[in-house]
What we know:
alpha+beta
Amino acid sequence: MAEALREISGLGVNDLGDDILNATEPLVLRGLAASWPMVRAALAGERGGDAYLRSHYRDATVGAMLGPPEAGGRFFYNADMSGFNFYPVHAKLTAVLDEIEAKRHHATPATVYVGSTTVETCLPGFREQNDIHLGGRDALASIWIGNRTRIAAHYDVPDNLAVVAAGHRRFTLFPPAQLKNLYIGPLDFTPAGQAVSLVDLLNPDFDKYPKFAEALAHAQTAELGPGDAIFIPSMWWHHIEALDPFNVLVNYWWRQSPDYMDTPTSALMLAFLTMRDLPAAQRKAWQEIFRHYIFEADDSTAAHIPEYARHVLAPLNDEAARVLRAQTLKKMNR
């Protein structure tokens, strides 16, 4: 039911400009990393990608998640949502690769997954040969390794460029406005840090989650192979399936905001503490205050106040942010 994501072909690792990296719509970049040695190794043979990773390994321990065969690769909550259907372990990366290899030809294997591990932590020198030029952006490069896995729809605050380095992955994206139709689970008790949709994309229960049909009407999807990449803008919901017995993805996260800014998630959590349970009329008043000072703020918002007297209404900088953070913490620690 989802429509195909927009695609561009013919770009290389040094060809990405601000028109792509500052975009607010997702985009598939076919063959972007085709020149990577990792990609060429993965395409050369069944175990080529595994061998290439091992050639860069330097005795590092990584965090991994193990799921039972009956989960079908889906990392999620357990049946009553009191916990999760997988358990975390710490192991040498080579031991994880051995486990993936041992399950390569199983029809219904247990799931093995290394998620969001900083590339330099476990594979020093990898980025010297396999990297994307991002125009000076201070991006965090992470690697994801596993067999067939399914990650529920979630959003990330940073912009995200994800490169498939081995195997194939199917991405299904939903615009931020579809939040109300995705049936999101707990915000502070999550499988891997981000709140996720409770709907199983491969087997949706429309009786239980009827509004999900509307989300699907706005979904966009693409299947990516080795060397392909996808740009996922901040706050877009994305569901990811790794389709092969061995899959590797490298992604880059960066924010289009100054370093002194905290994540907006902090404001959301503070709003639960300070606003959600107010009387309806007061919530509506605060909605107007946020609209005026935050969501529709412009040069006119504080124009009636002398510049030297605007305080928090003035543009923030590193020092002003430190002062504001200290004041807020002091008020919170009551």
